[in-house]
Write a structure and sequence with these properties.
single chain; about 230 residues; alpha+beta; two-stranded antiparallel ribbon
C-alpha cells in the first residue's frame, strides 16, 4: 500500500525531535493539509468501536499519542495505508492537534483514551482536498475512512510538566546548562552511541530556533508553542 506520511531518516527524526525537547520518536508528518474553508460545513464522522471500561486519560491538543491505524478510500473500500506495515510494525507516535497528521485525524483523535478503537470518516476538505495525494494513491476529492486503535496518551513535548522538569531552578526560563543536562539524560535513556559533537549541535540548534530575543534563555513564552498549556 502507498505511504501517507513522509518518512524521515533516523538522524533527521532525532534532530527534529530533540529540537522540540522531545525524545527521538518517529513522528508522522502530513505532506498536505486540508483546503481552506470552502466546505466548512463538512465534518468528521466518528464511530466508537470499542471503549475501555476505564477510559482515562483522554487526549487533547499537544498530547503525544501512540496508535495504529488503517486507511481506506470510501469510494471503493480499497486500503491505501496500514501503519502495521511501517517501522517494523510499531505503532505511530505523533503530537495531536499541531498538523503532524491530516486535519481530519487531528479532529478524529481528540478526547480519545488508551485502548479505544474508532472508525472515522473524513471528508476531502479535512484530508487531501482537490489536489489528492498521488504518492499515497489518494485521488482528488477523496473521502477517507480510518480505523484507529489508540495505545498511549502522554504529555506532549511542550507541556507544562515537561517545562518544569527541565527548569531545575524554577525561574520560569531554561538556561543552556539546564537544557544541556536534559539532553544528556535523554541520550543516556535511549542508550544510543553518539559522537559528543551531536550534543553540541542539537543544543545550538535548540537555542537558534527557540531563543527568539537572544538573551541566552528560553522563556516560558518562547517554549510554549502548544497553546493549550499555561505557565
Amino acid at each position: 500500500a502507498g505511504t501517507v506520511p513522509r518518512r524521515r531518516s533516523p538522524r533527521s527524526d532525532m534532530g527534529r525531535g530533540l529540537t522540540l525537547l522531545l525524545l527521538p520518536l518517529a513522528l508522522l508528518a502530513a505532506p498536505a493539509q486540508a483546503e481552506g474553508g470552502a466546505v466548512a460545513a463538512e465534518e468528521v464522522k466518528i464511530e466508537v468501536l470499542h471503549l475501555p471500561e476505564v477510559c482515562s486519560p483522554r487526549s487533547k491538543k499537544g498530547d503525544l499519542l501512540n496508535a495504529h491505524y488503517d486507511g481506506f478510500l470510501a469510494s471503493d473500500g480499497s486500503k491505501f495505508y496500514c501503519s502495521r506495515t511501517q517501522n517494523e510494525g510499531h505503532p505511530k507516535w505523533f503530537v495531536l492537534g499541531v498538523g503532524q497528521v491530516i486535519k481530519g485525524l487531528d479532529i478524529a483523535m481528540m478526547n480519545m483514551c488508551p485502548g479505544e478503537k474508532r472508525k472515522v470518516i473524513i471528508p476531502p476538505s479535512l484530508a487531501y482536498g482537490q489536489q489528492g495525494y498521488a504518492q499515497g494513491k489518494i485521488p482528488p476529492n477523496a473521502t477517507l475512512i480510518f480505523e484507529i486503535e489508540l495505545y498511549a496518551v502522554n504529555k506532549g513535548p511542550r507541556s507544562v510538566e515537561a517545562f518544569h522538569q527541565i527548569d531545575k531552578d524554577s525561574d520560569k526560563k531554561l538556561s543552556e546548562l539546564e537544557i544541556s543536562q536534559y539532553l544528556k539524560e535523554e541520550f543516556a535513556r535511549d542508550g544510543k552511541n553518539r559522537h559528543p559533537s551531536v550534543h553540541d549541535e542539537i543544543l545550538a540548534d535548540i537555542f537558534k530556533k527557540n531563543d527568539h530575543d537572544g538573551d541566552g534563555f528560553i522563556s516560558a513564552k518562547e517554549y510554549n508553542v502548544y497553546q493549550h498549556d499555561e505557565l
